[in-house]
């Protein structure tokens, strides 16, 4: 309850509101260097109130550091050999895939980003972790943290590319052990109508691989990402695109209900008939911001009976073919919306410089042109039908050069059912993506532009800070009919740019990396600056009316309100304030995050 004197002061207007705010809310979130940090007896009391589920953070690679104060369940050798596996990081309470956001603190000597000066300390890792198994534990811990101004972070798998599942001096809620997985063929649809729906109910601790396997065992599919180890929590809340997106839509469009614990400690059910504001926000408004989801009710679909799988490979054969390869890439990009409308799906990489050789061994060892590897798939479509759609495009690409300068090859075949297909496209569950990327969604209007402009945009998207090393971009055929044709009610807070998106472009190119004299903070900010000057600038010219896919975007985007949330921003901010009044949950580029500064150097999170 607000004390009466505050009302009086406020009513007189003599008391500046900022002063009021500072009485109720300290400048910084609690940290161990200040007296507001809970004493160990208080942490012990919290632990007791949540059935002993509190873990004091201990970095797994501490076994690689002599004289470290921490224990690790694994030998340094085991840690080193598993460091590049995101399955490994997901299995641990504290670990994350993108360690630069943990300040590269306590990484094994063979890991990228290792420097001896970083030492073995907590760095950007949370101080304590709740290994939660039920909602009440989370509710108790969140209320406790909110009352004490302790920062809260959420870890599902720790896959986040932007450090959003970690944070210095935080209490982390680890959701891995919410493992319900069940199909309900006659789930009662919330609301007055007496209707039922065939759904899957999944705890947010699962990786998508588990949920897909469960669905496939019953001839069904769910809208996963390409990599089985990605988790439900952050993927769904950011949107979630994968191999079925252009057919059935984004993951956030499949959610019918969720169970969520709010930062003030309420356990709520959110769906189309109750807590509808939260239901709207969680579907696309960003993970780790409004509350902690423990369970999702999602739609599933009949598994495709047959899948065609193939590729277009494009490469210049020599220097004379470099320009033609960019022309051919532009021709391909322009053709994609029509192909997608006709049922073609896929994902592509476009690379330059030395990076090109990684995608296409027959490409020149270094090229200023573009090397494309386009994986194509289509469901329930005859091979001849797919060939009929792709071959004319491949011919048009070839016509940009000749067979002494340019190579364009196409092949595809029926690979059987969805299970077989999935095992051939599944990623390698790799962890450790380093630098900063940038993302843009493109609609038909951004591709049906003059050829020379499109070509030059692609060339700019492939610019690398180190030209010799080059860079690559990943292009997801992630929008299209499955996403666009959904009714407004299924969009929730998904960025409105998805309503007309066909392609998702994910680009890199910045090359600063931390070393003994360049701290992670400095490397991150140098990369962010370069990305802004080269890639964000390009998007602002090419597709100013569009935006980014926040889960694979630049977390230091200076236009994040527009690019990540668009017209939904103000409403999301209101919902954020309603459910998280003490702002326990902070993530980079989160709603309301512009009022805070997270300093990876000091670890402090303070109002600005
Ligand atoms: C190898 C790899 C492949 C990928 N492939 C794809 C892809 O094909 N398609 C795609 O769309 N994206 C893909 N991504 C990006 C992916 O969407 C993001 O990394 C996403 O954040 C993962 O969510 P998570 O819950 O697994 O990760 P986490 O790191 O655990 O969480 C990510 C964010 O969500 C929050 N969060 C997690 N769980 C909850 C919860 N239960 N309640 C509230 N907040 C929560 C966290 O606080 C954090 O902010 C990929 C990432 C990797 C590393
Ligand atoms: C919490 O309690 C459990 C059970 O008593 C104990 O094993 C664990 O070490 C405690 N956690 C902390 C951080 O003290
Ligand atoms: C740690 O100690 C072992 C055994 O004393 C030694 O062989 C090793 O070189 C030390 N490692 C480091 C990083 O100091
Ligand atoms: C480490 O990797 C090896 C080989 O890939 C695997 O067998 C082992 O289970 C992994 N260990 C852990 C702890 O994940
Ligand atoms: C992060 O690393 C830098 C050195 O690169 C160090 O000065 C700083 O204290 C570290 N921050 C934290 C929170 O550990
Ligand atoms: C977390 O809790 C689960 C379920 O109780 C348990 O099996 C697991 O060992 C715990 N993990 C850690 C690291 O405490
Ligand atoms: C709802 O439908 C079920 C099954 O069709 C039926 O048994 C039940 O009587 C219906 N209830 C109402 C209130 O209409
Ligand atoms: C493929 O065909 C099966 C059987 O007709 C059907 O149930 C399924 O919905 C189809 N899938 C797609 C993606 O067209
Ligand atoms: C490629 O195009 C650029 C202009 O975009 C031009 O300067 C260059 O000479 C061309 N190279 C070849 C080999 O034609
Ligand atoms: C290359 O193209 C020329 C002219 O179209 C054609 O005559 C020749 O057979 C082609 N060579 C190969 C190897 O395809
Ligand atoms: C898919 O095909 C494989 C190989 O033919 C088979 O083992 C599997 O049972 C099939 N799965 C489904 C869901 O039909
Ligand atoms: C640029 O990349 C090349 C090839 O990977 C590498 O040899 C070179 O050292 C890099 N240059 C700089 C300035 O980092
Ligand atoms: C660290 O990197 C910077 C920038 O690339 C470089 O100037 C510096 O010499 C490097 N320092 C060390 C110790 O490697």
Automatic annotation (TrEMBL):
This protein's UniProt keywords: FAD, Flavoprotein, Oxidoreductase, Signal
Domain FAD-binding PCMH-type span(s) in chain numbering: 122-303
Signal sequence segment: 1-21
Domain of life where this protein originates: Eukaryota
Pfam family, one: BBE
Cofactor(s) in the UniProt record: FAD
GO molecular function list: FAD binding; oxidoreductase activity
Family: Belongs to the oxygen-dependent FAD-linked oxidoreductase family.
Protein name: FAD-binding PCMH-type domain-containing protein
Species of the source: Cladosporium halotolerans
Biological classification of the source: Eukaryota, Fungi, Dikarya, Ascomycota, Pezizomycotina
């Amino acid at each position: 309850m607000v004390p009466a004197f505050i009302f009086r002061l406020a009513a007189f207007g003599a008391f500046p509101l900022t002063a009021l705010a500072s009485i109720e809310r300290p400048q910084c979130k609690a940290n161990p260097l200040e007296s507001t940090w809970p004493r160990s007896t208080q942490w012990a009391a919290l632990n007791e109130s949540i059935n002993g589920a509190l873990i004091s953070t201990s970095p797994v690679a501490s076994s690689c550091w002599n004289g470290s104060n921490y224990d690790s369940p694994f030998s340094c050798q085991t840690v080193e050999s598993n460091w590049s596996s995101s399955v490994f990081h997901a299995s641990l309470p504290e670990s994350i895939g993108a360690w630069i956001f943990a300040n590269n603190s306590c990484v094994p000597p063979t890991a990228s980003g290792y420097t001896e000066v970083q030492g073995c300390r907590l760095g950007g890792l949370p101080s304590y972790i709740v290994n939660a198994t039920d909602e009440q534990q989370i509710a108790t811990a969140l209320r406790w943290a909110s009352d004490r101004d302790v920062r809260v972070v959420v870890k599902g798998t720790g896959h986040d590319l932007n450090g959003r599942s970690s944070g210095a001096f935080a209490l982390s809620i680890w959701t891995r052990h919410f493992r319900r997985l069940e199909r309900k063929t006659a789930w009662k649809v919330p609301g007055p109508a007496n209707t039922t729906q065939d759904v899957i109910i999944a705890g947010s601790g699962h990786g998508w691989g588990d949920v897909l396997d469960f669905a496939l065992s019953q001839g069904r599919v769910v809208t996963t990402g390409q990599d089985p180890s990605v988790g439900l929590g952050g993927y769904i809340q950011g949107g979630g695109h994968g191999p079925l997106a252009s057919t059935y839509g984004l993951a956030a469009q499949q959610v019918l209900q969720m169970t969520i614990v709010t930062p003030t400690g309420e356990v709520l059910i959110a769906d189309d008939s109750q807590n509808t504001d939260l239901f709207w926000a969680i579907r696309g408004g960003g993970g780790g911001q409004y509350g902690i989801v423990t369970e999702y009710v999602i739609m599933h679909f009949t598994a495709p009976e047959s899948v065609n799988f193939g590729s277009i490979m494009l490469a210049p054969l020599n220097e004379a073919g470099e320009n033609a390869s960019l022309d051919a890439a532009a021709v391909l990009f322009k053709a994609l919306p029509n192909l997608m409308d006709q049922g073609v799906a896929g994902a592509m990489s476009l690379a330059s410089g030395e990076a090109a050789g990684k995608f296409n061994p027959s490409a020149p060892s270094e090229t200023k042109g573009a090397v494309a590897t386009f994986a194509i798939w289509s469901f329930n479509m005859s091979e001849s039908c797919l060939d009929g759609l792709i071959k004319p495009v491949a011919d048009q690409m070839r016509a940009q050069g000749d067979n002494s300068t340019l190579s364009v090859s196409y092949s595809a075949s029926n690979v059987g059912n969805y299970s077989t297909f999935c095992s051939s496209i599944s990623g390698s569950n790799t962890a450790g993506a380093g630098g900063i990327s940038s993302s843009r969604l493109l609609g038909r209007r951004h591709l049906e532009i003059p050829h020379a402009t499109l070509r030059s945009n692609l060339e700019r998207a492939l610019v690398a800070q180190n030209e010799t090393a080059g860079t690559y971009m990943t292009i997801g055929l992630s929008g299209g009919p499955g996403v666009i044709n959904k009714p407004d009610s299924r969009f929730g807070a998904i960025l409105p740019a998805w309503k007309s998106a066909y392609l998702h472009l994910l680009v890199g190119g910045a090359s600063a990396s931390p070393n003994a004299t360049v701290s992670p903070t400095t490397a991150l900010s140098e990369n962010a600056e370069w990305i802004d000057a080269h890639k964000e600038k390009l998007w602002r010219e090419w597709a100013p009316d569009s935006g980014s896919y926040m889960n694979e975007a630049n977390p230091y985007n200076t236009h994040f309100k527009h690019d990540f949330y668009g017209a939904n921003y103000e409403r999301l901010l209101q919902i954020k304030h309603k459910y998280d009044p003490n702002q326990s949950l902070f993530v980079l580029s989160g709603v309301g995050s512009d009022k805070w500064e997270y300093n990876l150097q000091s670890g402090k999170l303070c109002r600005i």
